[in-house]
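Fold sample X.
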Amino acid sequence: MPEPAPEVAFVGEADIRSDFTLTDHTGRAVTEAEYAGDWQLVFFGFTNCPDICPTTLAYMASVLDELGPRAEDVAPLFITVDPARDTVPVMAEYVSAFHPRLVGLTGTDAQVAEAAQNFRTWYERVEDETAPDGYMMAHQGYMYLMRPDGGFEAVFQEQEQPPEELAETILGHIEDEKGAT
């Protein structure tokens, strides 16, 4: 008779953290400290993305709308992985198309790389002569929910659940945190 598989135990916390120095879509230098005390819903992408980014940002906007007044407790952050093209004016125009509370963040190549490393996300420039400027950016499509202290809470993908379900999940985290303080 085969032995039962060992039970998997999870301990500790993922080393995913909100830690960055970037420039917001209004041209203001910001760090994660700007959002201390707020939950953060963070997505990495780029403005020339043909599908994942606009779909995910529209989804994030729907989640914010579903949160109603509690959306004030959540900082929705879109961090570019293409700072060469995603300048402050480009980011300002782009995020305004999705939601008035969405914050676009850009910076130098080094600043963006450091932010991506801290969130443990991946991106890469891919040459493509049919794309704008001859390249696309391959990247992960995760939304990170970060606690008010900047620590990691959860990760989501847009197609995993309808926006109202993600809003309910986020509200549950907000209520749990409020009850614990």
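Fold sample Y, listed below.
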Amino acid sequence: MTKHRCGWCVGDALYEAYHDQEWGVPIYDDATIFEFLILETFQAGLSWITVLRKRENFRNAFDNFNYKKIAHYKQPKIDSLLQDAGIIRNKLKIHATVTNAQAFMKIQDEFGSFSKYIWAFVDHKPIKNKIKNYKDAPATTAISDALSKDLKKRGFKFVGSTVIYAHMQATGMVNDHEINCFRYNEV
């Protein structure tokens, strides 16, 4: 019997594996939350599959998504990233990643962890939506608007409401699996 999956991932093995194993699973670990934040910011304006296909290249280029190292990147490292064909070579997004790593650590200092900060926007538990067709899922919500605004106020870049809502979906802050998807009740 074939498992029913959300329509957005069907037909691509990498997409399906990501959907089946990661998308929508609640993440409370700061390092993993940061990884998804980097990937989502690079995805802005592009398709998610483009980023997924380059994920391991990003992992290698950005020191395994180690925000403590990224926060201290100097121009030579930034220049090498701009030459790295394995990642998305967008100067503004690369600079934003360094800025965001610095802002990420300031939030950790203030709240004890980034996870405590970000999960507070959903009262520390996932919101379980009832999406029949993935095309009906919102691109933004009042919560993603508020979170985006607060992150920008704290110095983050490339964190518009659409990027933040996608991050919330990816990290399980919201469950936007289609209600007939086999993962809907699993996450």
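Sample Y note: The longest strand covers residues 127-128.
Also: The chain has a mean pLDDT of 96.
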